[in-house]
């Protein structure tokens, strides 16, 4: 082999060796891109399966870098909330951007609030805890905020579920405080209930399954909520609550029907 030929062979070998890393790097990027595509495809399939229920039929999804974006519409806020929770559980999804729309409906905030107050007032009838829930409702631009107190977590969650499944509600903020577990408070609740609803002039309120006089107890402190027919009824309820053994203090927040300071 001549000197010239040896030089050409060496140059060709060097060129081939120099190009090898680029070829390998290109293959690496191609493989990574394919893996990312496969992962997105699996997530999209998982999301489609998670949203297979008919209530999500108008919901669309897309995935980018592990972030799932939900669009479309549902009938009530609970469907929107449940869609997000289901997608979050899909393997590979790191976050959810929930842009699902809920119809606002024809009711204004005041009408929606009145509807919710009524629905939540009678929500737990028959379970024995109705008189011990004092849950407040406010609505602004379709966003419902729940406050006050509930006898137990089931009562609080049930009220939130009522709001979330009411057409027109755009979001639910659950600020309900659950009463602490206390045998002493339980005894006071029952005794106060009997003292108030068993009293002659107040017995008429016991007929209403919604129990309009609500009794909230925390650490021996009793607060009365609700609406009564007259100032005399309000005063009588307060006196009856004060007579219960073990009660430390009574706050009488009962409102008289027709008064200007009646709560919404």
UniProtKB/TrEMBL annotation:
Q: Which UniProt keywords apply?
A: Signal
Record organism: Acidipila rosea
Q: Does the keyword Signal apply?
A: yes
Spell out the PANTHER family in the cross-references: BON DOMAIN-CONTAINING PROTEIN
Q: Which residues form the BON domain?
A: 35-104, 108-180, 185-258
Superkingdom of the organism of origin: Bacteria
Q: Does the keyword DNA damage apply?
A: no
Q: Which Pfam families match?
A: BON
Species classification: Bacteria, Pseudomonadati, Acidobacteriota, Terriglobia, Terriglobales
Signal peptide segment: 1-18
* Name this protein carries in UniProt: Osmotically-inducible protein OsmY
């Amino acid at each position: 082999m001549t000197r010239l030929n040896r030089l050409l062979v060496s140059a060709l070998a060097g060129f081939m060796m120099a190009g090898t890393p680029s070829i390998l790097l290109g293959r690496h990027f191609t493989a990574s891109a394919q893996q990312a595509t496969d992962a997105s495809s699996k997530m999209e399939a998982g999301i489609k399966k998670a949203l297979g229920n008919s209530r999500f039929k108008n919901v669309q999804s897309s995935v980018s870098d592990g972030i799932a974006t939900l669009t479309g519409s549902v009938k009530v806020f609970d469907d929107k909330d449940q869609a997000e929770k289901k997608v979050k559980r899909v393997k590979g999804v790191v976050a959810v951007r929930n842009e699902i729309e809920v119809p606002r409906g024809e009711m204004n905030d005041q009408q929606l609030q009145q509807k919710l107050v009524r629905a939540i007032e009678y929500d737990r009838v028959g379970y024995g805890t109705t008189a011990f829930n004092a849950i407040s409702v406010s609505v602004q631009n379709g966003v419902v905020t729940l406050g006050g107190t509930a006898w137990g977590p089931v009562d609080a969650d049930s009220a939130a579920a009522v709001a979330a499944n009411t057409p027109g509600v755009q979001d639910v903020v659950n600020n309900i405080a659950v009463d602490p577990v206390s045998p002493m408070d339980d005894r006071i609740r029952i005794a106060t209930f009997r003292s108030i609803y068993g009293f002659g002039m107040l017995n008429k309120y016991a007929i209403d399954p919604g129990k309009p006089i609500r009794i909230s107890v925390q650490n021996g402190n009793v607060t009365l909520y609700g609406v009564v027919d007259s100032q005399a009824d309000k005063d009588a309820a307060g006196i009856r609550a004060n007579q219960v053994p073990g009660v430390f203090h009574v706050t009488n927040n009962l409102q008289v029907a027709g008064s200007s300071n009646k709560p919404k």
